[in-house]
User: Fold these one by one.
Assistant:
Number 1:
Amino acid sequence: MQSSNAAAGIRRHPSVVLRAVRFVLLIVGALAALVPFYYMVIGALQAKRDTSLIGLLPLPGNLTLGNFGEINESINLLQSLLNSLIFTAGVVACTLVFGLLVGYALAVLSFRGQGLVFALVLLVQAIPFQLLMIPLYVMVVRYLNLADNYLGMILPFAINSVAVLVFRQYFLQIPKEVFDAARIDGASELRILRSIAVPLVRPAVLTAMLVTFIGPWNEFLWPFLVTKNGAMQPLAVSLANFSQSNGTFVDNPMGAVLAGACVLAVPVVVLFLLFQRQFTSANLGSAVKG
Amino acid sequence: MRRGVQVPQRGASDGAVAIRSRPRARRLQVWLGENPLGIALSAPYLVFVVVVFLVPFGFGVWMSFHDFYFTAPGVEVPHPFVGLENFVEVLGDPVVRQAFLNLLIFLVINVPLTIVLGLLLSSALDAVVHAKAFFRVSYYIPYVTASVATISVWIFLFSGNGVVNSLLGDLAPEPSWLANPALIMPLIAAYVTWKNLGFYILLYLAALQNVPKELHEAAQLDGAGRWDRFRSVTLPAVRPVTSLVVLLSIITTGQIFTEPYLLTGGGPNGASMTPALLMYQKGIQQGQPDIAAAIGMILVVVVMIVSLVSRRITEGKN
């Protein structure tokens, strides 16, 4: 035992075998992660559903763009995309505005009740959504009459504790002297926020925008609960409803569903590929801090 | 109370009042703090916290202790206090117990799978030099893609005449994956593991990259082999991440809704029912929001207890 350990210790570079095993492992992992996306695309392009090994190759005889037309006729793709976009934009806008205002107030200003505000920010993060789902549904749909309404969809996502904490952290990193100098020059606090603080944290604003985009774009449960009218449903909801109804009036229902899945997935995947560094670092940061 | 009334006075006519009643204004200033603007900036947020979080929270708790059902709009009906009746009904319901049991099956598969695969792939990724970015991006893509989109692929793969069964041929399970009570929960656990693994790999990777090289070198000089170093240097270093992974898995488990809803609707025979899906069926489809609220409260308490126990286990030693 002793001698074999010593031998391993002397050999500083990993053996070829070990390196090969490691690389094969990583490749298998990457295939497992990506092959379902290949199936998504090939399934969306199949004129007839074919799940055999050969049928899963892009055979020229079985390729069509017709599924995209089918899904568009069934759920009005453009309207669904527009609904997703409005819902998402509303959430992103609220997240940014509240995040910047409250983050700034907590980091730079000092006022009565500051501790309470900070405590509430943390509390919001601690309340699980399962506890709110039913009462919030009753309130929004029954009392506020916001079913089939963009406001009703946006409401529960409007405040985002993670964004407040992230912006607070960024504002805290700006040296105090910057703000003092501006105050001596006679700038009002609002003006300081607009012309000095926000421009200084612009990278954080971009990151917050990108990361917040994914949540509502992919969200299913809440918009599913509060929208019954197909013309108001975001794509994730209308696609899921189509998939549940089995769309028997369509030639290749699975193909139509997968075509819709491609349309739903592509914007996020493209954004992620373009800005992957922002995505990964921000998500990790929020997980570790949360 | 007296101080509270002074606020509108100050806002009403600015300069003159401020000069005449300077001591008052100063007292107000002292009371509000150095930058009263902070209150104005936080106020809209606080309104939202109250409307979207605190009121529904209280409403949900209230609902679970009362007899609450939907009526036509505008109709006033009494909602009598029923004590623990809703909870008694929930706990006595075999469907509810099955739903919680399903979460346990899910956890038992999901957590070890996530930890082993996450550690394995992140260690390999940490050691490799080439194509690091490619692997990282590949693993992360499922995590950012909508569940509704990726579950469609899962249906394409695992339905009766799906890809997996046509590959397996005569070896295909009978009944097929989505209709098989013994296979459906493991399948959902595998799906969620697949979907979230990229996020956990990056968590582990960040921890691995923080391990000082000197530690490995010191262990090597002491004659430690590769496996010894993994056990005595790497594992302790990633322990906080493992603890976080377990905690996040438990929290996500409590939220499982979309997967069983789209794959099976909770079937076959409740084999993939989850508390969140049950809350939707009871509370919204069957019009018993009081029962659903009670399930929600039990779910949150169970998730909290399991989280605390897991923290004890994963952080307890050392």
Number 2:
Amino acid sequence: MSAGFQAVQWNRHKLVYDALVLLGATLWIGLYLFAAPLVQGPGPGVTPEIQRIRAVGTAAFFMLVVILCIGPLARLDRRFLPLLYNRRHFGVLTCLMALVHVALVLSWYHSNGVLPPVVSVLASSAHWSSLPGFPFEVPGLLALIVLMVMAATSHDFWLAFLTPPVWKAIHMAVYAAFLLLIAHVALGAMQSEHSPLVPALVIAAAVLVSALHVAASRHEARPPAAETAGWIDIGPPETIPDGQARVIEPPAGERIAVFRHGGFLSAVVSVCAHQNGPLGEGRIIDGCITCPWHGFQFRPEDGCAPPPFTDKIATYRLKREGGAVLVDPSPLPPGTPVPPLAIEAP
Amino acid sequence: MKRAHRTWHRRIWALLPILLAVLIGAALAVRPPAPPQGEVRAP
């Protein structure tokens, strides 16, 4: 589980996950190709090639919508966590679907002119200053570039090479890609198609993604903890479920996860060393704090990953004062041993 | 992930619905009306 280079380690879960994503995309494309002619009725202009372009394009669009929903869903309800484990595979498949869409568009619309196909796309409209004639292909191409950068850097090698904060910042560009994709559809298909279905689906996707993110953000927000001379009262320790944590929001610095293991408490930073995952939402498995995102493990008493792994996280001091348990919000260097505090007063 | 980053993330999430609403609203505002029944427009 260290962040060193290693090839993709296929397991049954990954294979099933990828198979289900591919099956869902294939079913959508088949359903679209079957149902779209029935909905649209007979009419000129929409050839089977154009139907294929739209079927693959809508598949890529809805795959990105599902990807964006997985994160907040997993924070709101732990039952969605299995969807998060191989989200990167989902992202790479979405990028491949978008590439197929672009390849079909270039070969159908832009391959017979004198200009190279990509140049032809960019030069096909001169109405850059007005919304109705704006070249909707441009935001689509920019979204594709973002997806390609994310897919190309999705491997753990790039996570280790770029460091988690830089990698995470790059992959936050998925929201820019979503906005660009909405612009691509809103200025393209929504303008050329008169069916109310297109704006309805775009609005539904935007509302779903926004609502889930706002809900997850509100779910995460906690009132600041009460302080006693710099130390923070963690609240009644006996109400922390065994093997789980209470997350403390200090006035400054990272969130702190106070884990209960057996009759003891240990405090570590609530940010995983792997991908900044919410460690405080994890559980203790085999005596180790286990990140809910990718299963990285750390010992509660010193924040070190079990051998042979070398990852470390910051630990915090705990003390009992009167009937209260307090945590020092100043983090100790990653891997510093701190004796666990007994829940029952001696 | 530092505290400033978390605040930044929350701002992005708060900004997301606003940007989406503006974008879709503008696109709907300039959307051409549907042609009358029976009229066939050139593709």
